[in-house]
Fold this protein.
Amino acid sequence: MKLAILGAGPGGYVAAIKAAQLGAQVTVIEETEVGGTCLNRGCIPTKSLAASSEMLAKLRQSEDFGIELKGEIIPNLSKIIERKNKIVNTQVKGIRGLFKSWGITLKEGRGVLQSPSEIEVTLKDGSKETTTADKIIIATGSRPSQIPAFPFDGDRIISSNDAINLTDIPKSLLIVGAGVIGCEFACIFKELGSEVSIIEMLPRAVATEDIEISEQLERELKKKKIKLYTNVKVEKVDVKDDGVHAWLTDGKETVAEKTLVSIGRAFNSNGIGLETIGINKDIRGEIIVNEKMETNVPGIYAIGDVIGGLLLAHVASKEGITAAKNVMGGDERIDYSVVPAGIFTSPEIGSVGLREHQAAEKGIKVRTGHFQFRTLAKAHIMGEISGFFKIVSEETTDRILGVHIIGPHASDLIHEAAIAIKKGLKTKDIAETIHAHPTLSEGMMEAAEDVHGEAIHVTKR
């Protein structure tokens, strides 16, 4: 079986390795670099910057830990970026090494579908060649969305791609969009020393999360003196010598040295030959696939951001594995009901399953349990006491429907909940499982106990 994959992001490269493991002869075509947006311009670079800003915050807390540092603590952005690049390059080399070990051919260039079995590749030297395959997987990903009012210039008006490579810390930064990316960058640059403001057209920050989680994050942003304007849009902008001026629908005007536009992602589905072979797209440009990740054209599959849905690297990887198995004759289908997600703000957010308001919209009666990080000894030991655990369970069965965490290491802690929901466990199953002390994980156990008012370290209601 000859398989060609268009794109080497977390969907494409994982699909390539899985298909090679199953015996396929795999060719991957990638225009920029293996690892795609996640590794080169998204998940990994931003988390590296976040790690540097968190270290800076810890150093500023050092006296609370009994450690005296002499002299001023100053962030060096060029070294922060250098560290980020080193991490990215290490991961890129790792993927290239995996390709080599599994006998996967990597063609570096832009691929365009010519037929259901042919891809024309324009290589980096400008030459062209044709790759033929029995099956094709499209994994071309997404890019930052643009709006006419904010044309990216890479200097004053920037995208998330630009933000990870700034050479100087801006004195002031206006962020348009209080979603995941916008809030992550807000926390990073505020800690580095920028004055940060965020504009959001929706009623709350990270509006896809549980309402209580959003409210807690907004309180944390306020503590950091990050200005958040919700329920407001930008009417017009003007780039002047003193910065980017933005006029809002509530009549206010804001000025910042730089403006980061973070209003979502656009699908990389244009210019790759979909129309040539008749692959169907939805109204926003995402490729339409079935449960097996196959398009309307037999033998051509699509995965990752380019198909819309949950634009998460780990979802793309799972879709890649599903598609690869089906390419090789399997009958796999992906289950989207249990997808954990992390937001790397300060503090972090971890979530999986139904939000409380989603359960209400579905007419499901629920019980909830909460537990504050400030009640955990380990949180005090770490000096990170903000946030809480929240469990949403079905009232009649006690089955766990959703778990939402805001606090230290929330993105790691959420996976106990993911397994619990996947296996249909009840809150009693978590509550009755011994959790090690002193750890942050005890908060999950106590939140589960709190669903029934039985938490040991919660005052009597």
Notes: Residues 157-263 form a domain with the FAD/NAD(P)-binding domain fold (CATH 3.50.50.60). The first strand starts at residue 2 and ends at 6.
